[in-house]
Each structure stands twice: as structure tokens, then as C-alpha cells.
Records
---
Amino acid sequence: MTSVDPEMKRYYAQRAPYYDAVYAKPERAADIAFLRAWIPAQFAGRRVLEVACGTGFWTQHLIPVAMAVTATDATEEPLGFARLRPGADKAAFALADAYALPESLGRFEGAFAGLWLSHVPRRRVPEFLASLHARLAPGAVVVMIDNNEVQLKELPIAETDAGGDTWQHRPLRDGSVHRVLKNFPSKAELEAMVANVAQACEYRALENFWAFRYRLP
Ligand SMILES: C[S@@+](CC[C@H](N)C(=O)[O-])C[C@H]1O[C@@H](n2cnc3c(N)ncnc32)[C@H](O)[C@@H]1O
């Protein structure tokens, strides 16, 4: 997995034991309640590939509705927590780089990526999408969700690099500080990103998150 940002891997490995605190913030409760119903509903009866599943918060909600779920992440530590989720025995888990999803994973009619696109450098978005779409069947549904700019109140942008990517300096509970790429694509940028490959784009602006859904032809 040479294409994985080692700093990001270290950050998510260290954070894995308490990562789920992001889903317990009271100001996010209404959004999470909506997404817990809306995301699985997009995948009823489909075989779903989840990219960058982390600790499997969304995986556990996909499992009861999807025909099958394969949940992947590039970091072993969060995957270890995902494997402990209720119903995890009905899913498959694999260590996989989102930029190089292997053919051995199979072919899927749905794909989900939660809080992942924001970590993809702008120049690598086409690479990620090519990797993802290569694993999908015609007519597959793709859903991505991510933080909107409300998150900047807690973690302001510390740097913008020459490629237009924005970076946060994120503290962890042990006092270490990590430089993490975090972009905030607009609705227009998301639509442009898939303009050549997608049909039926749908964008939803929530209080703390955006949700984006499209279908492959
Ligand atoms: C913000 S977390 C998202 C976790 C989960 N999807 C969620 O919504 O709660 C980002 C995840 O991306 C993973 N990651 C980092 N680089 C990756 C890569 N190149 N391919 C796949 N996953 C990667 C990290 O290990 C981490 O678990």
C-alpha cells in the first residue's frame, strides 16, 4: 500500500479506540439519525463495497439492509473495531487502499464512502474514482457523505497548499498533533467530479454534513 499517506494512517490508527466520539456529539444527533436511515435505504438488496470504513459505524447500519457488504480500510486498527460491530459476521472485511481497490474484492452494485472524500487530495480524486468505479457494475449506486464547513469551528484550516488542498492540525488525546488533509468540496465541485461518468446526482445539505448520491450508467 505505497500510495497511502503514512501520517494519515498513523493518525487513524492512534485515534481508532475513541474515533466513535464523532458520532456522539449532541449537535450532530439529528443529522446522524437521518443518515442512519437514509444511507442504508440507498442500498437495499445490493452488494455494497464500503471504502475507508474506519471503525465500521456505517457498516453496522448497511449490513441488515444490503444483500452483502465488503468493508475496506487501509489501516488495520480501525478495521479491528469494525470487525466487532453487531452483525459483522455477515460482512467481509479487507485491508485495501482506496486508490488501488483490488479485483479480488469482486464486483458490486453499490458503494459507500463516509468521511473519506475530504481526505483525498484534489489531484488524486480521478485516481480514487477510477479505482472505485472499476469495482462497480453498470447501474451501481454510489453514496458519499462528509463533514461540511461547520467542522471548521472545531478544527480550523491551518494551511492551504499549492494544489489547493486544505490541512488541519489535529490534536489527539495523548497530546500529539497531526497534520491532516481535509477538503470541503462544494455541491458544484461534487457534481463536476462525476459529470462524465454519473447519472442522477443528488446532493443533500445537512446541518453538519453533506450527502452525495449518483448512479453509474
Ligand atoms: C474519517 S475516517 C472515516 C471512517 C468511516 N468511514 C466513518 O465514516 O466513520 C477515514 C478513514 O480513511 C482511512 N484511510 C486513510 N487512507 C486510506 C486509503 N488510502 N485507503 C483506504 N482507507 C484509507 C483511515 O484509516 C480512516 O479509517
Note: The first strand starts at residue 47 and ends at 51.
---
Amino acid sequence: MLSDVKAIVEAQRDIFGGLPYEHYTFILHLSDRGTGGLEHLNSTTCGTQRFAFKSRKKYRRVLQLISHEFFHLWNVKRIHPDVLGPFDYNREVYTRLLWAMEGFTDYFATLSLRHASLFSSKEYLDNIADNIKAYEKKPGRLVQSLSESSFDTWIKLYKPDADSPNRTISYYLKGDLVGTCLDLEIRHRTNNQYGLDEVLRRLYDRYGAHGTGFPESVYQETIEEVTVSSFEEFFHNYIDGVTPVPFDHFLRYAGLSLERKYKNPDFDEEHDEKKAERSEPTAWLGLDTVVRDGHKLTVQYVYTSGPALGQLNPDDQLLAINGFEVATDEQLKERIAVDARVGDTVQVAVFRRGELMTTSVTLAAAPEDEVKVVPVTNPTVEQKVLYESWLKAPWPGENV
Ligand SMILES: [Zn+2]
């Protein structure tokens, strides 16, 4: 782990051309709780699960956490809008730039893991695909913009309720994805001379290195200065607006495209690879569940984009589908995703505030459940060059 953290420090040092401290301390708490961290000027406090080091999947999260908190020593602790420093912990502080503070920190955290060879190119692209999947699942992406999400964090992101996925979008998640698109757009417009890192370097040199914050409008101005072009439309659509982000358009600058497929819900890993996918969409109720009191399979969210809207409510305890018990997520998946088809109507029995009720839901198609970022078949020289300088990795050919 020490050598991995060293590689993270070196990869991020190379982005800024030096380290702005004499000594930096990583404090790592291991427990049985979740994952999280807090950035300070010359240190960070990170918490992670005690047994997160042997599984590659969990260890990737540990590396992302450490990389994220370390990157904050520049982005947020030194590069920040003026309201964020010196920080007043006694009251709410309002900024429309948390997508750049937290989302871009997430973006550079994972990108520097790629640069440090701690993430393979495939792991890096799979991480983008997972984020796209999570973003597209949330109807709130069409309701709340990134700048609103930042400004309203005190009453929304940190005060989630049963309707949060329908009304809000995380500035971490979408900010990370918009950072990806912005980096690719800047590289494309400047013939790969500059990337998003140049924007951060200029903000650091002009403000952060002198211990001052900047007015919020400076962010867009600095991007426009780096590219000598307008980003009015980009900000209007993807930062201050809710226009769906056309990921394919931006990924194509790097010779990549999005591939969307339907997963076979009955797929058994020991079977033939081809059975992992199927041509028809999976049937979908349009809700997420949570287990309450140790055994009650309960509706947590009902998506406004799904067919259960108006039929089932958050906090309904699921009991049966077509008369057969559903006590676990596995049983629910079997009755809906495996057994049923899009267009089937199912009878759903629930306890609603202790009262037995039955309602019918006509199943819809699940949003594409398999999204992959893959290389295009005939890349141009420009696409290959951009890909290689962006990820500091050779063009993958057909192998990703
Ligand atoms: Zn953070």
C-alpha cells in the first residue's frame, strides 16, 4: 500500500509540477463502517472497511478514496472559490462550483490512478461506464443542474429523502463525468496542447499559491482563456442546464464509443460467455429496495421513469408477486427480471403502513443495463494521439 500511495503522490505532483508542503500526513482508520474521508491543508483523514485490501474491487475503492483526498490538497484546499476559504464551519456556505471542487477531484483521482498504472486502461474505462450507468438511471438528472445541485447541497444531497433520485443529481457523479467531457473537449479544441489540468494549474498559480480564492465566474473564463474559444454553450447545457450529456460525442475525440447491451438476468458465470447478454430488454418494476428490521424487503425509491409510479410507494413492504412470496432481492429479481417479460402485468402485494394491499403493475423495459466504453474500429491518428496522451497508455486496439 505504501508504494501505491507513493505512486499516487508522484502522479499528482507531476500534474502541478511540485508539492506545496513540507510534510503531509495520511491518517487511515480501519473499521467495519463505510468508506469516507476529509481533506485538510497538509493531511487527510480517511476511513475504510477493515477487510477492503484483498479484494481487487474493494481495494480499487480504497485507492480512489486516498487519491481523491490527496488531490484536495490542491483542488478545494488551495484552488477554491472565495467563499470556501477560510472555511466557516459554523454556518452553511453557498457555492455553485462544487461540481468542480468535488466532481473534478473525483475525475483527477481516478485519472491519476491510471497515470500511476494502479488502474489498467480497462479498469479506467469501466469506471467511466459505471458512472454513466449510474447517472442515466437517475431521473433527477433531467430536473436538477450541476450548479443547482452544488448550491442546494445543504438541503438536498446531505438531506436525502425518498424522492431524491427523481429530483436531484450528485455533483460528485455528474461532476466527474462532465470533467471527463470537458478534458476531452479542451484537448480536442487545442489540438491536444492543453487539458483540464491546465485550467487547474492556472487557477493554482494565480490564486491557490497565494492563499486566495477566486470569484465564481473565473472558472469558465479560465477554460475559455486556455482554449481561446467560448464554453457558453457547454456551461448552458451541462453545468447550468439539464441537457442529457452526449457522452459518445466527447469520448469519440479519444477514439472511444459507448456500447449498450442487455444483460441476461439468468446468466450463470460458469456458462458460455455469450449467454451473458440477450437481445431483449429486461422487465423492470422501476424501483429500488432496502431491507428494514433485518427481514422486511421494503421499497426505497420509486423511479418517475418506471411503471410502479403511482402504484407502489416508498416504505411499502413487498410481500408477493402474483401470489408468491418475495422476501429477498434475489426472489424479486427471479419473479420480475428472469420469469416475467416486458408488457406483462403482475399483481404486487404489499403492506402499506400495516395494511395489506394488492396493486397491478405493467412491467416496462429496464434502462440498458450493460454500458461499456470501447475503442472504435478505425481510429484516426488524432484519436489515437489524444487517447494516449490523456490516459498515458498505448492505444488498446481491439483488446479493451
Ligand atoms: Zn471530496
Note: The chain has two domains: 2-253, 283-365.
---
Amino acid sequence: MTTPRIHISGLCKRFGPVTVLEGLDLDVAQGEHLALIGPSGSGKSTILRLLMTLETPSEGTIQIDSEDLWPPHNPSELDRAARAQQKRLALRIGMVFQHFNLFPHLNVIGNIALAPQLVAGRSAAEARQQAAALLERVGLGDKGEAYPAELSGGQKQRVAIARALAMEPDIMLFDEATSALDPELVGEVLSVIRDLAASGDMTMLFVTHQLHFVEQFADRVAMLDGGKIIEQGPPSQVLHNPQHERTCAFLAAVDLSH
Ligand SMILES: Nc1ncnc2c1ncn2[C@@H]1O[C@H](COP(=O)(O)OP(=O)(O)OP(=O)(O)O)[C@@H](O)[C@H]1O
Ligand SMILES: [Mg+2]
């Protein structure tokens, strides 16, 4: 593999006495679409949250394009230069959450234009113009003035995707982006994600239980259990010919519940 976009090495995360990740190693290539699967509590969201710098590793390192997002030593005591580097790298990563997390008091354009103004220093006019273009892209060109409470779940999630894209990330993380949606709304969100994947060479990590989507869309699937990746490979292999008994049990359980 050429230099990976994301390089994770020896990553450990403990919450008090609970060990969630235990020496996780993972590389993600430029433009790769990686699906993370695994039972509840296996640490899938924790991996994404460590990438978003919403959590601090207990041990280990994460690099983006060979630069330390989390340096290997004393991650909780980053010096000023390391913090500045972390902030710069984290801005290249966008995340979409299960529960949308839109600001209820801002309309749709306001939600999308906020971070570009506050964090990227764009003018209000420029940020609003970009927000309108992104709304068109997710098929909601007519909803700019609406408030989150006036939108369906699928529409809210499409706004959340537009909001993440407004910071022009080149890595996107999706944490069960469709699991809070009524079944008839899942398709519209997946189709936006699919268009996004097809339109550029964005690197994408997604946590999902939608195995048919993983099958169509992932280049690679990584199965997490016990704080580690226990099996990984193309969907044809991991989903249809799993080698690990815990992968077999997990896939059977997901199939039954969907
Ligand atoms: N802030 C926290 N404080 C304490 N424990 C936490 C915290 N965040 C996560 N955990 C614990 O870490 C473990 C892994 O959580 P995580 O959310 O990463 O799992 P997950 O694989 O995303 O599960 P799910 O499929 O249910 O979303 C769980 O046991 C959870 O209770
Ligand atoms: Mg989770």
C-alpha cells in the first residue's frame, strides 16, 4: 500500500476499568470506503470519535497523511505545536452522527453556514452561498429557510451531511447515519452517500448494520470484537465467507434483526 491516508497503530482506549480498544491497528488508503462492523459496545463509535478528536486515546497513535493526529506519547498532554497540528488535521475530517445533531434554533442554511464562518473564517455571504449549493447537492434546494423541527428524519440527515461537507473534508465518517430513520427514509440518505462516494475520491469510514449497503459500497469490511479487528477483507469474503466464528454469529444476528 502507498502511504495510507489514515494510519492507526497500537490504539488503546479505556474508560475507567473498561477496555474498549486494545491495540488496534488499521490503515485506510486514499479514496478507500471502509465499513466497520461488530456487536454493540465493540468500540466502532469510539474509533470514529478518536478520529474526530472527541475522545483521547489511552495509548497508541493515529496519523493522517503521515502526520500525528494523536502522537504516541502522552496523548493527554499535547504541547502547543501538537495541538495546532491536531486541529489542522481534524478539520479535514467530517462526521455524520446517528442523531443528526442539528442546531434547533438555526434554520437549515444557518446550520450549514455556521462552522465555515466561525472556524474557517468565511464571510456570511460566502458561507450562505456555499450552503445553498450544498443543499442543492443533497436534493434540498428548497429547504434553506426551514428549521430542523420542520424536516423529516431523512431530510435532517441530508442537512447534516451538507453541514459536514461545508468544511470541505477529504475524509468522511458516518456513524450509523441511517439507523434512527424510518425504513422508507433510509434510501434517500444512502443515495446521497452513494453519490458523494461516486463523485470524488473521498476517503470514507462508515459504521452501519445495513449489510446490503456495505456489500454494494464498501471496498473493505473490518469486523471488530474484543477491542480488535478480528477479520477484514472485501465484502464478498467477510460477509459471505466469514472465517471467524464470532463474525458468523454477528452476521446471523444482524440478518435476523433487519
Ligand atoms: N464516555 C464514555 N464513558 C464510559 N464508557 C464509554 C464511553 N463511551 C463509550 N463507552 C463504552 O465503550 C464501549 C464501546 O462503546 P462504543 O460506543 O464505541 O461501541 P459501539 O461499537 O459503537 O456500539 P453500538 O453498536 O451500540 O453503537 C461501550 O461499552 C460503552 O459503554
Ligand atoms: Mg456506536
Note: The chain has a mean pLDDT of 92.
---
Amino acid sequence: MAQVSIERKENRFVQELLSPSDKLLLSSTRDFVDEQIMPVRRELDESTRSDYGLVEETLKKMLPLGLQGGFLPEEYGGMGLSSALTTALLAEEMGRGDAALFTSLMGGILAMRPAIKTDNREVLEHFAPRFVQEDELCLGCFAATEPQGGSDIENADLMGSGITCAAALRDGQWVMDGTKVWSVNAGLAGAYCVVASTDQSLGDEGIALVYVEVPTQGFTFLGFEDKEGLRGSRQGGFELKGVRVPEGWRAAGPGWDAELLWDNQAFARIVSAGLAIGMAQGTLDEVLAFTTDRIAAGKPIRQHTVCATMLADIAMGIQAGRDNYVNAAYLYDRPEVYGDGASVHMLSRASAAKVFCCDAAINVTNRAMELMGSYGYVTDYYVEKYWRDAKTLQLWEGGAQLSRLDVVRGYYDFDQFHRNELYERIREIS
Ligand SMILES: Cc1cc2nc3c(=O)[nH]c(=O)nc-3n(C[C@H](O)[C@H](O)[C@H](O)COP(=O)(O)OP(=O)(O)OC[C@H]3O[C@@H](n4cnc5c(N)ncnc54)[C@H](O)[C@@H]3O)c2cc1C
């Protein structure tokens, strides 16, 4: 049995869908992962328990690859990278190394995408130059989640009614008030895209994506979360109190901003699916190596039939997950044929990929740990890290349940507010 699947090594399945520059980016990212991340994965994780020194050093080394600035249009010094497929494949490569590093850069990508998609020149001209510089690390932050919950903001059926962060237009400036939590790079980023509401009663028309530059008066950082996994990326909260930004820093306008929000959600879920499969693939590589050398009852663990069938389950989960996210990304990249990123159909496909791949990664890391016995649980190997990291992915972007509701919406007119006469009658009686 090959140590590493040929499919992953050569990405044969998708080669013909990629441009020459995307192929080059993928192969240089893979080389970076093999040479600069795999040998120091443990040190990277340990760095998060002290000063994050190695994490920041590695993120800086990644800048010339273009994994963050590359998403900006060429006229702003980027590479015009917009393909969900390429992004998800990059995420898979990075997920195999250390998913947290890519998560940190995704903060900037998700923050800048609304401005890129609408060609908001005022925002791009102001913020883009920092993201394309290669000597200094500039992080971005896409801030949606609030203390009362993330799902009520990400739930498209609630049409922004769950957003309490307020954006009010006064004297040609947006005045921002509210609290955000759990946002990647909060407290570290220079550029924030804040999900706010101009008026909760306006539905989608009231949703506003407003850019904030930090430091600025009225911005207070509230601290980082202390997480079990994905430790190399930091999530935190912040408060906005009367923060003022130029009027042109709203991504687009009423109605449009909501579409950008739902579109970002679909895109992020496809990328998360790639990240999850990267972790699962890294786990398979680990467990194949371990079960070759480890002998039980006179033969390598992987030569025991029951263990071989577990390895088959692991391999099938990875392969089905990869096919799933590649398929969803292919559809996302062709909005003229399959509908745009904000459509119910696309969110359904993207969510299906995310749910399936995150569940697969959790299952794969669990099974691999069993195959490695107690060694699966110790820090001498990496399966315990993949296991910790994989669980986190399931919990973000609306969690496991809201994502499933988004899946089902693509199949029938699921209505979570549905009431029938019998229900109403019983409620009245009780
Ligand atoms: C590592 C990490 C990184 C993150 N990065 C960011 C970031 O960059 N920016 C950002 O804004 N947020 C970020 N988040 C927050 C994340 O998006 C939210 O945690 C997520 O949306 C869920 O919100 P919640 O935790 O408040 O759970 P809740 O909204 O309280 O939901 C709890 C559970 O209820 C389920 N649920 C919710 N609504 C329904 C419903 N209508 N029907 C059935 N079930 C439902 C959910 O699926 C979930 O299982 C991050 C979280 C993590 C863990």
C-alpha cells in the first residue's frame, strides 16, 4: 500500500480545472508545507503557549506565496485569485500542515472579499497596500458573531434581525456601536469587516458590512479565547463605541451587503471543507506510517484485517470528502450556470461539503487514534493535534446544526417558523 495516496500527491482529479498560475501556487504551497511546516508542527503548537513567536515568523514567511494578498485584484498588487476551488485546494494543503496558519490568513481574505467583489475602490485603495507587502504581516478580521450567538447572524432566514451591532449614518460617516466575539485575528488585525445593521426591522436591506481600521478611537479589544485546537490562530472579542468611519467604507449598500454576507458564508464553508480534508489526509499519512512499524500479535497493525477495514473507512471518508468539496467549489466558480454564491442552492451545496468533510475529519482522527492506541493520544505524534483541530472546524460558521438546516433548504422549502393549526390550538390550550 502506498504511504500517500497518488490522488492527493498529484491532484490529478482537478488538474485540468486549474490555470497554470493556480497550479504553480498549489505546488509552491505544498512544498512550503513539507519544508517549513511539517518539521516544526509541534514547535508551532508550543509557541502558542508562550509568545506565538514561531507562528508569526511562519506567517511572515508565507506572505511571498500570496496566500493572503494574492486574493486582491492585480491592479492592487494581488494575483486576482478568486476561485473557490483553488482556495479550497490550498486550504487542504495547509490543513495537512497546520490549519491554524491558513485560518489566520483567511481572516484577511474573508474581510476583503466583499470589497473585492463589489470593486469598492475607496476600501481597496485604503487597505490593499498593507495586504500585499511582503515584509510586514497585516492581518484582517471578518467579524460577524456576537455575544448572544453566531447562528442568529449567519441564519439567512432571520434576515439580519439577530444583528445587534449598529451602523448609523451621521454627517457623512458611519457610526458603529456593538460587540463582536470569536472573530479570527480580533486584536491583531489592522482591517476589520464588521457585520452590522442599519435597522433590524429592514430585513436583508438593513444588513451592512462596514470596514473599520484599527487602531481607532472607540475600539476596545476584549481579549482572546483559550481554545483546545487550532491554537495557532487567535480568536477574540472587541467593542465598538461610537467608532466613526467614512461613508464609502460600507461594502456596497442595502440588499447587496446581505448577498455579500451569504456569499462569504458559502465560500468560507467550501474552504473549511478543504481544510478539514487536509487534516484528515495528514492523519491518514501518520497512521499508515505508525501501523506499518507497530507490531501486534506478530504482524504490523495494518495487516490485521479489522484494522485494514478501519483504514479503508478512513480512506473512503477522505476521498468522498475531497470529491464533495471539489464538486461544490466547481459549482461556486460558475455562478452563471449554477446560481450565485448567495443563492439557497449554493449555500446548500457549500454547507453539505462543510458538514460532510468536518464530520469525516472528526471520524478519521478518532479512528486513527484508536489504531495507534495510547500513542494516538500523546504529543509525540500528531494525530492528537489533528483531532483537536478537526473538532473546532465543526463548530464555526453556524455550527453543525445550522449548517445542516442550510443543506436542507436546498432540497425543499424548509421553514423553521412553520406552525400548523393543531400546534397553535394546543399552544392556546396550554
Ligand atoms: C475557531 C473558531 C473561529 C471562529 N472565527 C470566527 C470569525 O472569524 N468571525 C466570526 O464572526 N465568528 C467566528 N467564530 C464564531 C462561529 O462562527 C460561531 O461560534 C458559530 O457561528 C456558532 O455560533 P455560537 O457559537 O454562538 O453558537 P449558537 O449560535 O449559540 O448555536 C449553538 C448550537 O445551536 C445550533 N443552532 C443555532 N441555530 C439553530 C437553529 N435555528 N436550528 C437548529 N439549531 C441551531 C448551532 O448549529 C449550534 O450547534 C469562530 C468560532 C470558532 C470556534
Note: The two ends are 64 Å apart (CA to CA).
